[in-house]
Each structure stands twice: as structure tokens, then as C-alpha cells.
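Project outcomes to date are best conveyed with an example. Our students and postdoctoral researchers have been running inverse folding experiments weekly, and each run begins with a structure described purely in C-alpha cells. The record below, which covers 309 residues, was selected by the lab manager from last quarter's runs and is presented without edits.
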């Protein structure tokens, strides 16, 4: 009898330990700026993440998962995306998957211009974002929400009919960031804003990326936009993922190294990967410290570090 009780106790203890060690869950909510439209990122490593819409998307969430794995961090990564959507779409149509579990962390963004009908106007954007945050917070009061402030669109800046025409390329990103700051101040559970748009601007200002794809791309510079000058290129989504990874985990993106495997698999050179990691780090350290790269850190070299898990 005592042996049986001891066995039961061991099983219960083991189950409790396994539960305590369960990987934190992270849900990405967004649109084409999350799923990687216009680039090889869209279906990249889709088998490493869970697409709640069953559309076979890897996207930025799969890059986050790859970075986490290479850094020795275990995350259970999910995504729920729909092209062209704002926060209201997810609340009105996807509560069955968004609210089906208490997420530990959520990364979310709305439409690229804040309001599709009134570009730059944050009024409806903030109201809809608060609704989404309330749903997530009600399901788990301890949830950490990270809002992703997206980039300036070249197609809304350089053409004469663009709402940001005549303004510098950084203007749209700053207006978008201001909208996210308003939302962060009102929505429950918001931990911080991922400064992706500002990182794009930094890449242009420091000569890593070209600021105007309409007049050609300067030699040795990256085009962060894809062919439509709206969505991101592989390099643009890679930078987005680096910023989100660094902000959510607190890990220095440079610790991944110039030999980081996803950059290699997606066709970026070591120098490009290193430059984008530096941009992400610099942007993330503007307003406070983060975990620094270990002294003498080197790029991952073992094939197992790059294996799809």
C-alpha cells in the first residue's frame, strides 16, 4: 500500500514539475505585416509555430521562434493573422481562437496607417485596440501585451497622392508610434511598444537601408520594402523580428551573431545580418538597458543550432 502511495506521489510530483517547466505561450495577432506578405518569410518554418487559422503561415512568429531556440529560450508560439485587418477584425471574428486560452504574452498590431479611411487618425484605432486588450486581459490578468508600432510606407510618402507626401520618410513611423503610445496608455496589460518603425528609420539614417525605393537602391544598402513599396522585404521582416525578439525577451539581438541561421537560410549575408542586429540593438537601447551579449560571444556554428525543431 505504501509503495502504491509512493508511486502516486512520484507521478503527481513529476506532473507538477512538468507543468512548472511548461514553455510560456506567445500569440502574435496582426495582418500581412506579421505574416510576411511579399517575401520568403511568409511560409518560412511554418511547422515550428501554430497558425490558429490553419493557413500554413510561418512569418515573423517563426523568426521569433528561431531566434528563441538559438538563444536557449523555449516559447510555444502561435499566430492569428488576416491581411488588411485592424484590431476590430480579430475581436469581431476571431474570439473563438484568441480567447480560448490564457496567453502568457501577446504581440499585436493594427492597420498600417492606424485608420484605413483616415490615415494617421488614432481615434478608432485606440478604441478598437483597447477592446482587444480587454479580451486578452480578462482571459489572463497577468498577460503581457507588446504592441508593434509599424514602419513608414514608401507608397504613402513619395507618390503625390500619399497622405504623408512631402514629409520625410520618418514622419509616418512617428505618427504611427504616437498612436500606439496613446493605446498603450489606455489598454490593460500592455508591457511596452515594439519600436519597429523607428528601427526602420534608424536603418535608413545610418546607411544600412535605402530611404527611397522609387529612385533606385544605393549600392551596399538594403531595401526594407518589397516590390510594392508597402510591405516589407525579407530584410524588413527580419529587422521587425529582431526588434520584437529583443524587446520581448530582453536578449541582445547581436548575441545571435552574423552567422544566425535564419538570416542565412533566407539569403541575407553575414554583414547584412550583423548590421540589422546592430540597428535593432541600438533602437532597443535608446530608452533603457537590456541584456547585453556575453563577452566574446560568437555566431552559432553548429548545424544543430539551425535545425528546424
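After processing, the design step wrote out the following sequence:
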Amino acid at each position: 500500500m505504501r509503495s502504491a502511495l509512493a508511486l502516486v506521489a512520484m507521478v503527481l510530483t513529476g506532473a507538477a514539475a512538468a507543468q512548472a517547466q511548461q514553455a510560456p505561450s506567445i500569440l502574435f495577432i496582426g495582418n500581412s505585416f506579421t505574416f510576411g506578405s511579399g517575401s520568403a518569410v511568409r511560409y518560412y518554418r511554418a511547422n515550428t509555430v501554430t497558425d490558429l487559422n490553419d493557413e500554413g503561415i510561418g512569418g515573423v512568429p517563426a523568426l521569433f521562434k528561431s531566434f528563441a531556440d538559438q538563444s536557449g529560450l523555449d516559447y510555444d508560439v502561435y499566430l492569428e493573422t488576416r491581411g488588411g485587418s485592424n484590431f476590430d477584425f480579430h475581436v469581431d471574428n476571431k474570439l473563438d481562437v484568441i480567447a480560448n486560452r490564457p496567453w502568457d504574452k501577446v504581440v499585436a498590431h493594427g492597420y498600417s496607417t492606424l485608420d484605413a479611411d483616415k490615415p494617421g487618425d488614432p481615434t478608432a484605432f485606440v478604441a478598437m485596440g483597447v477592446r482587444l486588450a480587454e479580451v486578452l486581459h480578462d482571459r489572463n490578468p497577468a498577460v503581457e501585451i507588446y504592441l508593434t508600432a509599424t514602419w513608414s510606407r514608401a507608397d504613402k510618402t513619395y507618390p503625390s497622392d500619399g497622405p504623408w507626401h512631402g514629409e520625410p520618410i520618418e514622419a509616418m513611423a512617428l505618427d504611427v508610434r504616437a498612436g500606439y503610445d496613446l493605446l498603450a496608455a489606455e489598454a490593460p496589460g500592455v508591457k511596452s511598444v515594439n519600436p519597429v518603425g523607428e528601427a526602420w528609420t534608424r536603418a535608413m539614417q545610418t546607411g544600412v537601408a535605402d530611404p527611397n525605393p522609387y529612385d533606385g537602391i544605393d549600392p551596399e544598402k538594403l531595401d526594407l520594402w518589397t516590390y510594392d513599396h508597402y510591405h516589407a522585404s525579407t530584410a524588413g521582416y527580419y529587422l521587425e523580428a529582431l526588434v520584437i525578439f529583443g524587446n520581448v525577451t530582453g536578449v541582445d539581438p547581436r548575441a545571435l551573431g552574423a552567422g544566425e541561421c535564419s538570416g542565412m537560410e533566407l539569403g541575407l549575408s553575414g554583414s547584412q545580418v550583423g548590421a540589422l542586429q546592430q540597428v535593432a540593438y541600438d533602437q532597443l537601447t535608446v530608452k533603457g538597458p537590456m541584456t547585453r551579449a556575453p563577452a566574446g560571444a560568437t555566431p552559432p556554428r553548429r548545424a544543430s543550432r539551425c535545425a528546424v525543431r
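The longest strand covers residues 25-30. The chain is about 40% helix and 10% strand. The training component of this project remains on track.
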